C-alpha cells in the first residue's frame, strides 16, 4: 500500500497571473474576505526580512517529524514560482531544513517555503533572501529516511492546503486560498481594499463616522458608569 509514502502529480495549479494579483492585497484583508476561517496559525512566523510578500501555487509535502527526505525530493521537482508547503506535524525538536536546502530552493526558482516544523541556519537563510515561514528554530538536524507524501492534501491549525492552491504570506502570517475560490476571493479583496482606502482618507480628513461604536455598545447592553 502506498498511503504514507507516495509522490503524486498536481492535477491543477493556480495561474501565475492570479498569484501576482494576490500580491496587491494584505493577507489580513483576504482573511477577512474568507470569513476569518482560514489561517496557517500564529506559530508560522516569517524567518526572512520583513516587507516581503509570498504568493504562488502550493506544492505540498507531508513528512515524518524530524525527517526531510520528501522535502528534498520536493525541491528537485518544484517548478519556478512554486511554494513548498511542508507539514512536519509541528514538531520543533529537529530542523526540517537549513542553509543548503534554502540554496537549492533559490537556485530552482522556488517562490518560498512554509514549514509546519522547525528550521535551522536562520540567520544565513535570512541573509540569502529566501521567503520562509516556520514554526520554530533549532540547531538539531533531521534524518533522511522517509516515509512521506508529496502533492496530497495537508492541514495544520485548521487550514487545509491542496496541491495547486494559492498560498499567500506577508508579515502577518500565511493563508491558503482554495483553487476553486480564487476569483471570488480576489474580487472581494479588491472591494475591501477600496473601502479601507476610503475610510483612511475620511480619517485623515476628519470626516469619518465613528457613531457605530457607541451604537454597538448600547445594543449589547454595555453599562456606562460615571
Automatic annotation (TrEMBL):
Pfam families (alphabetical): RraA-like
Cofactor(s) listed in the protein's UniProt record: a divalent metal cation; Mg(2+)
InterPro entries assigned to the protein according to its UniProt record, in alphabetical order: RraA/RraA-like (IPR005493), RraA/RraA-like_sf (IPR036704)
Binding residues annotated for Mg(2+), in chain numbering: 121
Transmembrane segments: none
Positions that bind substrate: 98-101, 120
GO molecular function: lyase activity; metal ion binding
Keyword terms: Lyase, Magnesium, Metal-binding
Name the UniProt record assigns to this protein: Putative 4-hydroxy-4-methyl-2-oxoglutarate aldolase
Organism annotation: Antarctobacter heliothermus
Amino acid at each position: 500500500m502506498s498511503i504514507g509514502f507516495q509522490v503524486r502529480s498536481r492535477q491543477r495549479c493556480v495561474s501565475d497571473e492570479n498569484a501576482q494579483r494576490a500580491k496587491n492585497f494584505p493577507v489580513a484583508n483576504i482573511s477577512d474576505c474568507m470569513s476569518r476561517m482560514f489561517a496557517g496559525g500564529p506559530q508560522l512566523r516569517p524567518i526572512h526580512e520583513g516587507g516581503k510578500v509570498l504568493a504562488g501555487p502550493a506544492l505540498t509535502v507531508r513528512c515524518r517529524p524530524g525527517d526531510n527526505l520528501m522535502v528534498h525530493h520536493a525541491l528537485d521537482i518544484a517548478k519556478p514560482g512554486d511554494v513548498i508547503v511542508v507539514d512536519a506535524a509541528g514538531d520543533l525538536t529537529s530542523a526540517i531544513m537549513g542553509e543548503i536546502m534554502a540554496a537549492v530552493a533559490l537556485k530552482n526558482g522556488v517562490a518560498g517555503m512554509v514549514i509546519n516544523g522547525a528550521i535551522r541556519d536562520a540567520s544565513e537563510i535570512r541573509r540569502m533572501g529566501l521567503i520562509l515561514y516556520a514554526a520554530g528554530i533549532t540547531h538539531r538536524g533531521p534524518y533522511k529516511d522517509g516515509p512521506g507524501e508529496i502533492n496530497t492534501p495537508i492541514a495544520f491549525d485548521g487550514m487545509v492546503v491542496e496541491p495547486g492552491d494559492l498560498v499567500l504570506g506577508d508579515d502577518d502570517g500565511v493563508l491558503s486560498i482554495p483553487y476553486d475560490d480564487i476569483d471570488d476571493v480576489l474580487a472581494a479583496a479588491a472591494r475591501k481594499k477600496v473601502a479601507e482606502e476610503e475610510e483612511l482618507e475620511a480619517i485623515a480628513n476628519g470626516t469619518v463616522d465613528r457613531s457605530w461604536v457607541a451604537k454597538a455598545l448600547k445594543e449589547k447592553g454595555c453599562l456606562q458608569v460615571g
